[in-house]
Structures
1.
Amino acid sequence: MSAQRRLQILGNQLLASSSGNPIARQATAASDDACASVPYASADGKPNSYGRVHGAVSREPANWRRIPVVAREDLTDVIYEKSIGEGIAKITINRPERRNAFRPRTVQELSWCFSDAREDPDVGVVVLTGAGSLAFCSGGDQSVRGQGGYVGADGIARLNVLDLQIQIRRLPKPVVAMVAGYAVGGGHILHMVCDLTIAADNAVFGQTGPKVGSFDAGYGSTHMARLVGQKKAREMWFLARLYDAQEAHRMGLVNTVVPLDKLEEETLVWCREMLRNSPTALRVLKAALNAAEDGQAGIQELGGNATLLFYQSEEGNEGRQAYMEKRPPNFSKFKRLP
Ligand SMILES: CC(C)(COP(=O)(O)OP(=O)(O)OC[C@H]1O[C@@H](n2cnc3c(N)ncnc32)[C@H](O)[C@@H]1OP(=O)(O)O)[C@@H](O)C(=O)NCCC(=O)NCCSC(=O)c1cc(O)c2ccccc2c1O
């Protein structure tokens, strides 16, 4: 983060504290905004110790910079940006004339951007959203649907959004869906596979597949059942109804609902709060929460994190060092912890 940005954020925090109790003020501002209030202050309005240490988060707008995806073609269906001076990448599906429906090209571009965000050590959180306020994403573009999938410029039918779902789940950083308008069909599944969903009060959620002759029997069904329960998941799929943001919140599909004009502001606050926390803790927690659903693939992901941490330890390095020095390893000095 640049010194200028740090000063700016510090300034905002000081500003908050100069107008009284920063934590209580944050809670008031949040409830004013119909955002979730946080129990960082005791009943008398004094911040508790958690609030004193971890309270106020900047509500400043981000300074977004467009990012060319290096060595790949120009993006046509997606906008990729990073917030200058802080570790937030934003990926925007940019087909508002089709309610941000995705075609194979869109999915390919999304995949490029998620790869970049994963590889960039300065990125700590990724936001996925849709252009405009009418839709997050309306799923697969039915106008290019052919036999066996959605047909790209190469004439090949693909269901490549399934690979994108896995890429989002496997990305070892939090991915936040920022949803305004419709998140339906394959677009609804995209928000579900993100780690968190911040919804605008105009958001609408649902699975339309059974009405257009489609279904997602993978994460779209099984992960949904984990989120909303078996009965509700069957209702969502079998009846193919649409649900407003408040109902989606009650169902456990989204983390919070905010007024449309506060959507990005609130999303940035959630991102900034996560960025203040240990990236390794978040990484391993994401892998653990995935592992509970993903069978051997989930254990592999979680296990990879264990290896990553072990490689950073003296004990792990002793094995490598011994090999390089052509001597037997000496693990005797390492304690067997209870
Ligand atoms: C999303 C809507 C409810 C919005 O309704 P609204 O009245 O606000 O807007 P319009 O309907 O007038 O839309 C404006 C404009 O956009 C076009 N459009 C919208 N969505 C799509 C779409 N998905 N594909 C193509 N075009 C779309 C619409 O035709 C209009 O164009 P005009 O030229 O007429 O102006 C409503 O739009 C709606 O219901 N959309 C369809 C939602 C839907 O059924 N999506 C597909 C579900 S199936 C799916 O997504 C899917 C994809 C996969 O890749 C899978 C892979 C593997 C397994 C399963 C998959 C899967 O199920």
2.
Amino acid sequence: MSDFIQIQGLSKRFEVPGRGAHLALDGIDMGVREGEFVSLLGPSGCGKSTLLYMVGGFVKPSQGQILVDGRAVQGPAPERGPVFQEFALFPWKTVLHNVMYGLRVQKVPAAQARERAEVLLEMVGLSDYAGFYPRQLSGGMRQRVAIARTLAYQPRILLMDEPFGALDAHTRTNLQNELLGIWERDRKTVLFVTHGVDEAVYLSDRVFVLSGSPGRLHRIVDIDLPRPRIRAELLTNLRYQQYVLELENMLDHARHVRSAA
Ligand SMILES: Nc1ncnc2c1ncn2[C@@H]1O[C@H](COP(=O)(O)OP(=O)(O)OP(=O)(O)O)[C@@H](O)[C@H]1O
């Protein structure tokens, strides 16, 4: 059976005014199975976000193609839901209306949209904040709203660009757990960009390591740890520690590939 997401010979060249062309990604071939949780790890600037944006259909490849369920990605679609930092919440809408927004755009009747948004807010633990505005929430709460808003579209793929990067350690752990809970219930396919090796190991079925300048696929690591995963238990699990170490070393090597390029 072919992969759910097929990335074939994908390259991206950016034209930078006054500085010519910059090859951000070069010849990426990779496949992601349906329902799989995949993290992208790599040195800063290696093209992780660009790759995610291309799967989202927000950025066009210079070469190659991306197929989702056998169909070429031509642009953004509700089946590929982004949770990107820059897709900020609407400050003038309440939490409830932020979550309802995508459903209303898709012409879901108001009562039905409200019902679904309420279920999602409950799922991310924000039922009591439905009437609040984003400015009245903490960063972690805003990120939960953003996740609920994306889930409202019922995407088949969640595209997450360092969604917990800016949060304190405690909030990050809570949201990682929630995300795993949601993923275990729904088994959406997740593409997750992170700088955190431990986060990648904790969450993922597989970790794709990129090297930089230009970004290339360096290694793929299968994370063979049982689920459901409990973070406190994993921290003392020898296999978990070995994965973290292996990936740290791989990242060091990927950085070296970059400086040698
Ligand atoms: N719109 C753009 N125009 C020109 N260059 C760009 C553009 N977007 C990204 N780049 C360049 O492409 C390369 C990859 O950027 P990208 O943000 O995808 O990397 P990243 O791996 O996500 O980085 P980080 O880990 O620091 O977030 C970088 O060199 C960046 O400067």
3.
Amino acid sequence: MDPEFWLERWSRREIGWHLDDINSHLQEHWPTLGLPKASLVFVPLCGKTLDLLWLVSQGYQVVGVEISQLAVEELFAEHRLTPSITRAGRFQRYQVDELSVLCGDFFDLEPGDLGQVDAVFDRASLIALPPAMRARYAARMQSLFPQGMETLLITLSYDQAEMSGPPFSVHRSEVETLYRERYRIDPLASFDALPESAHFQRRGLTALREEVYRLKPLREAALTE
Ligand SMILES: C[S@@+](CC[C@H](N)C(=O)[O-])C[C@H]1O[C@@H](n2cnc3c(N)ncnc32)[C@H](O)[C@@H]1O
């Protein structure tokens, strides 16, 4: 999935993943992280999700990264926000108050680009990437956060033989392969997402689950047990 693929999806308005509402799993499960107000939340591959604004409304600082300039500009324009735009290394930083979005490639991120992150909200990033890129994604996360980072992770799982991605299927076993060395993985919820996914039914899916996990860095998990 090279950047061109995503830029084209945005320019053709093929953005079926985008929700017109705040993600219900975020609203339900984010409070279980117990994150103090004013903490900095990183939202990788953020698109123009309303979740960014919800997190700001809950009192957090938020930093997203998104490769499509169109997406970033729409995010601010659709909420009548006028961001300051500055160059930040290989990224353009769009900022309004507590919300900033780095426009550029996630895989170019260096630890200093984000600030002092306290937690991650990852919805539909891992499933946007083919298998080899998912391993690179997890490795980049590790280089950004060597001690690990409290994360709310939302994925989809289905039989990959029934449909090609994206979205790709990411089963629990893969989440464990990618993260278990450094994280305690708590499955929080699993939903039958097929009934609301007519588009994927037409593409041949007979089962589809949306899974919500909390990833807790092992060091912190040990301290709280
Ligand atoms: C499936 S969408 C999910 C968007 C968002 N998380 C949401 O819940 O609506 C994946 C997004 O990642 C962006 N993207 C893909 N590859 C990227 C990369 N290497 N760096 C930054 N953004 C990327 C795409 O443009 C797209 O907006």
